[in-house]
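Tip: read the tokens left to right.
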């Protein structure tokens, strides 16, 4: 069907910045600068300084950023690592791919890890924790840091959806041993394909991850320091991301404006739950604007039929994915959330008229 409001609209962003996108392509193609070149270095430096970490290492996906972090930290068979089931599979995958055991705790109504459940999940085997800052909203980092310090846990922050998000003025991905981002096209900062990045203040981890991403080579192509993988962020993607990063603050401002419009337009509807408000300790970047409704599937069908393209993330939480063997966890809030969530269109290129159209379509369902 022809949607009136798309869930994301990549061509619109391209049209609005066509000259700049085309100039990036021309520069990279005519310079032949494809692998580990200055655009990547420049992008890494900009992200490190923006997030507030000493190092940033570009890799080819958020998935690999998680996995290389976990390998560099040294999660291994016999270790337990705490995370959530209301996340993209890659968060849990990074633990499993290292041979360690994921221990899943429930989330709260802000969609993030329930900090009151962490200590009960800790055993003598617990090595680490991966909090996920979902939808561009930070986890309760004061509580998480207390526990990390008390039990000397290693922490990877999954900030795939949270570039620019803050807890008490400190940016996501700057709290942990490492913090990771995804530059998948739909992310708050997305490239024209896949991309990811690891932030860290630890010189040793940074060096390992640099080696891992380029088959063990750091200083010279002639010296192999370890076995690794081939998972570098392409220079072309780094150049696109550099161009787009010039607009980043402006785009986050616009996302927050759209969130306010949704908040105001949809408040007070009985049967509809809105996401947590970005105030007090939190600065949210609204990767997604997620509403909740007990009649989710009906509302989903109604919105699609009205011409509003919406998405459900995720209908099946990770501990209910049959193939993953994690169904021994009981996570009632996660299960309830999975049955109720819908993500509304949320990107800076949305017009006010489109936002109003979405609000009206949601309201029509409840009237
Ligand atoms: C919370 C979370 N973690 C990890 C990832 C993995 O990132 P990528 O798709 O770049 O591999 C994503 C991407 O969707 C994500 O949303």
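Filled-in amino acids:
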């Amino acid at each position: 069907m022809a949607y009136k409001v798309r869930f994301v609209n990549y061509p619109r962003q391209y049209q609005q910045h066509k000259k700049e996108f085309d100039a990036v392509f021309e520069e990279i193609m005519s310079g032949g600068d494809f692998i580990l070149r200055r655009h990547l270095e420049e992008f890494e430096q900009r992200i490190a300084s923006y997030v507030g970490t000493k190092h940033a290492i570009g890799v080819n996906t958020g998935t690999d950023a998680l996995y290389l972090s976990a390998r560099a930290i040294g999660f291994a068979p016999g270790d337990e690592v705490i995370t959530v089931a209301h996340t993209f599979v890659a968060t849990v995958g990074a633990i499993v791919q290292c041979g360690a055991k994921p221990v899943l705790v429930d989330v709260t109504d802000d969609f993030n890890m329930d900090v009151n459940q962490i200590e009960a999940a800790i055993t003598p085997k617990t090595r680490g924790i991966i909090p996920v800052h979902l939808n561009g909203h930070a986890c309760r980092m004061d509580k998480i840091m207390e526990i990390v310090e008390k039990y000397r846990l290693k922490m990877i922050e999954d900030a795939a959806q949270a570039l620019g998000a803050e807890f008490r003025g400190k940016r996501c991905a700057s709290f942990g041993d490492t913090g990771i981002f995804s530059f998948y096209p739909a992310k708050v900062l997305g490239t024209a394909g896949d991309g990811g990045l690891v932030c860290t203040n630890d010189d040793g981890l940074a060096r390992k991850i640099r080696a891992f991403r380029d088959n063990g080579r750091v200083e010279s192509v002639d010296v192999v320091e370890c076995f690794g993988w081939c998972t570098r962020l392409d220079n072309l993607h780094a150049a696109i991301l550099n161009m787009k990063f010039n607009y980043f603050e402006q785009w986050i401002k616009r996302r927050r404006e759209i969130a306010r419009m949704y908040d105001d337009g949809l408040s007070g509807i009985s049967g509809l739950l809105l996401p947590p408000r970005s105030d007090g300790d939190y600065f949210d970047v609204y990767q997604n604007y997620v509403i909740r409704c007990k009649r989710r599937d009906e509302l989903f069908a109604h919105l699609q039929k009205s011409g509003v393209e919406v998405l459900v993330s995720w209908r099946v939480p990770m501990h209910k994915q049959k193939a993953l063997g994690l169904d021994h966890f009981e996570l009632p809030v996660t299960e309830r959330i999975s049955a109720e969530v819908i993500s509304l269109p949320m990107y800076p290129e949305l017009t006010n008229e489109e936002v109003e159209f979405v609000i009206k379509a949601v309201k029509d369902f409840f009237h």
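The radius of gyration is 21 Å. The mean pLDDT is 98.
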